[in-house]
Specification:
Length: 505
């Protein structure tokens, strides 16, 4: 096994799984110990990610801090890991919000042991996806994120959880199996056959093969993003997820699809990516406008935030495929922003539901008079989500739109800009109806405002939101070299140099 220095990255990947293993041996009645071990595991994983960040060399476009070990020599499968400026912030965002996710379920009584163990296993799967440099290893981690979420929603979910679970499982499994076929085609297309990510880059493929393989990867990544019209599972999954579990769905699924496009689909099949870019940009714009319009009429606060996420992910898809470094910088930064802002909103909705036993906006009125702390924090994170200047989401959306205007998609970017106006409409209107006006509905009962522990949970997210808003350069300088490399790959070609039909299916 070879690695660059001490394998902090590998320890970080498997630290949550180690915590889940320890929890498996703790009696289910020892809830305080289970909570403590789960939180300690999440905090330790975040601390390890900070060590990885400290060792990251700014200005380098290649992969760093990884390990390589022969795993299945007869298939040329390796355990190979590493990060670059793109995966770095996905890792940090995941480890940063996981302690919040654990603490959101702090008062949970129903099968706490199984819930937190599955949650930690999901985190290992996510981190493995972001750090894998072997396609076989990547696929194993990719599927690892699917199974725990299936049980988390199906066993601890709310109304219509069985319907939402089956729909989520079928959508994501179908996309994953199609991608698996494309991975094996790519494996045999290289001589000698290999699953190595770096070896597969630049494999000569005819245009027909590129398009088919790109669509194979697209099937899985577009569902996980999700792009319109493959988005319908997401609002149902959020609605059925446990009241404390939408943070986990947001942490897991929203980042995997866009990451797959940047890490695999574009570098492996650049000619097909350029050909399909207008279609995908159109799907992203449709998502921005359609999801925002649907969010306006939502009565369930949780579904409203779920649809707002579909709209925001449309911006990320736009930034990925317009083909400029500025827009791609914005998309990568926006992933981290979504984990912070959307995750915090779901936490606050969970707190509301715990106190009011409802998420329905018509049942709420004048909550600000009863819960000023919760109402104030909800407003701040909502303003971040709609892109208020000075907060984190504004930077990501601004870079995406500026980069789009600088490309051949400038008029498409005008449509995207209109989506930011709709975001202000649905978020502020929902806030006005639920938190202001005369005290009525469920607000008439005696309800408790946020506890100090709950405020402390959200304080780091609030600090990160302001830090990114006022000092984005610290993040962008680490993203840009890798983003520039991906854009260069997108504008390159892997078509066979000869006039033969090599690489055609």
């Amino acid at each position: 096994m070879t690695h660059q220095g001490f394998p902090w990255l590998d320890l970080m990947i498997f630290a949550p799984a180690a915590g889940a293993l320890v929890i498996a041996f703790i009696p289910g009645r020892s809830r305080n110990l289970i909570r403590s071990v789960a939180l300690a595991s999440a905090v330790a994983t975040f601390a390890l990610s900070m060590v990885v960040l400290a060792g990251f060399h700014t200005g380098e476009a290649g992969f760093q801090e990884g390990s390589v070990m022969r795993w299945v020599p007869q298939w040329n499968v390796h355990y190979a890991t590493g990060i670059d400026g793109i995966s770095l912030w996905m890792v940090i965002a995941t480890t940063f919000m996981m302690p919040v996710s654990i603490m959101t379920a702090w008062n949970m009584q129903d099968r706490l042991k199984g819930y937190v163990a599955l949650l930690l296993l999901t985190q290992t799967g996510i981190l493995g996806v972001f750090c894998s440099l072997d396609m076989f290893l990547f696929y194993l981690f990719w599927e690892t994120t699917l199974v725990p979420l299936y049980f988390l929603i199906g066993m601890w979910g709310g109304r219509r959880r069985l319907y939402a679970t089956v729909k989520f499982f079928l959508y994501t499994l179908a996309g994953s199996l199609i991608m698996l076929g494309a991975i094996f085609y790519l494996y045999f297309a290289h001589q000698p056959p290999t699953f190595s990510y770096t070896a597969l880059l630049g494999t000569p493929l005819g245009m027909g093969a590129q398009l088919l393989l790109f669509l194979g990867f697209f099937a899985s990544f577009a569902i996980k993003t999700p792009l319109i019209p493959l988005h319908t599972w997401l609002p149902d999954a959020h609605e059925a997820a446990p009241r404390w579990g939408s943070v986990d769905v947001a942490l897991t699924l929203f980042k995997l699809g866009p990451y797959g496009f940047i890490r695999f689909a574009i570098p492996f099949f650049p000619d097909a990516a350029r050909t399909m870019a207008p279609v995908i940009v159109g799907m992203a714009l449709a998502g921005i406008i359609y999801a925002a319009a649907v969010a306006i009429v939502q009565r369930d606060l949780k579904r409203l935030v779920a649809y707002s996420t579909v709209a925001h992910l449309g911006f990320i898809g736009l930034g990925i495929f317009v083909g400029t470094v500025t827009a791609l910088n914005g998309s990568v930064l926006q992933w981290a922003n979504q984990a912070i802002s959307t995750g915090a909103l779901f936490v606050l909705i969970a707190f509301l539901q715990q106190r009011l036993d409802t998420r329905m906006i018509p049942d709420m009125s004048g909550l600000a008079a009863r819960m000023p702390l919760l109402s104030g924090l909800f407003l701040v994170f909502a303003l971040s989500s709609l892109g208020l200047p000075g907060l984190n989401n504004f930077i990501g959306e601004f870079l995406i739109l500026v980069g789009s205007f600088a490309s051949g998609y400038r008029w498409w970017a005008v449509i995207g800009t209109f989506g930011t106006v709709l975001a202000a409409v649905y978020l502020l209107w929902a806030y006005q109806r639920a938190f202001h006006g005369p005290v009525g509905g469920v607000a008439e009962r005696e309800v408790r405002d946020l506890r100090p522990r709950e405020v402390a949970m959200l304080a780091p997210a609030l600090a990160a939101m302001v830090l990114i808003g006022f000092y984005p350069q610290a993040f962008i300088t680490r993203i840009q070299p890798s983003a520039a490399k991906v854009v260069k790959q997108m504008h390159s070609s892997v078509l066979p140099s000869s006039r033969s039909t090599a690489g055609l299916p």
